[in-house]
Amino acid sequence: MMRTRLSADARASVMRAADAEARRRGRRRIGTEDLLLGLLTEPGGVASTVLGRDIEAARSASARLDTRALEAVGIRAELSGPPPSRRMRGRLAFTAGARSAFVRAVRLAQQDHSGRVTAAHLTAGVLSARAPDDAIALVEAMGVDVATALERATASSLGTQ
Questions:
Q1: Distance, CA of 145 to CA of 140 (rounded, Å)
Q2: Model confidence pLDDT, tens digit, residues 85-98
Q3: Residue 110 to residue 86: CA distance in whole angstroms
Q4: How many Cα atoms sit within 13 Å of 107 on the Cβ side?
Q5: How many helices (H) and strands (E) does the chain have?
Q6: Is 64 exposed, middle or buried (CB count within 10 Å of its CB: 0-12, 13-18, 19+)?
Q7: Is the pTM of this model over 0.85?
């Protein structure tokens, strides 16, 4: 089996951005939603292109989802900004869903024999999750058809676009 790694650009930009998004939102672990937000921080990147949305639209949709979730359990909240920052040291761990997204991204990278997992592979890996995954809920909250976005991301990751 070929050894597949995250490319330097994906590792440097996407992983730092996903970590920052998780911390900004007061999370202790990086989930698929944080990975998607991290991918969307790159203007004109694969995620922005296939979704037709930018990071601000995604953050807004995420805040709406958080507000609805709180209201569903009887908590009325006005989320006007990120939660107070907690100092967390070191790298955050990944949720099971985020690890699964990486596994799917690695499989796509193996299909195109690139040897590297790119942002395109990771975007397709995140979008291939099944509801009720947080990233899928976020994509739907942005009014984007998940199947169409996944098809575009997969085509981009395999160089068939």
A1: 7
A2: 556 678 899 999 99
A3: 38
A4: 11
A5: 9, 4
A6: middle
A7: yes
Per-residue pLDDT reduced to its tens digit, 5-26? 666 766 678 899 999 999 998 8
Q: Which pair of structure tokens corresponds to residue 113?
A: 């024999």
Q: Which domains does the chain have, with CATH numbers?
A: 5-80+93-157 (1.10.1780.10)
Residue in this structure with the two tokens 């597949």, named with its chain if needed: 4
The string of pLDDT tens digits covering residues 34-79 is 999 999 999 999 999 999 999 999 999 999 999 998 899 998 877 6
Residue that has been written with the tokens 């024999």 in this structure = 113
How far apart (Å, rounded) are the C-alpha atoms in residues 76 and 35?
A: 28
In contact, 157 and 121? CB cutoff 8 Å: yes
Contact predicate 36/13, CB 8 Å: no
Structure tokens at 133: 């995954």
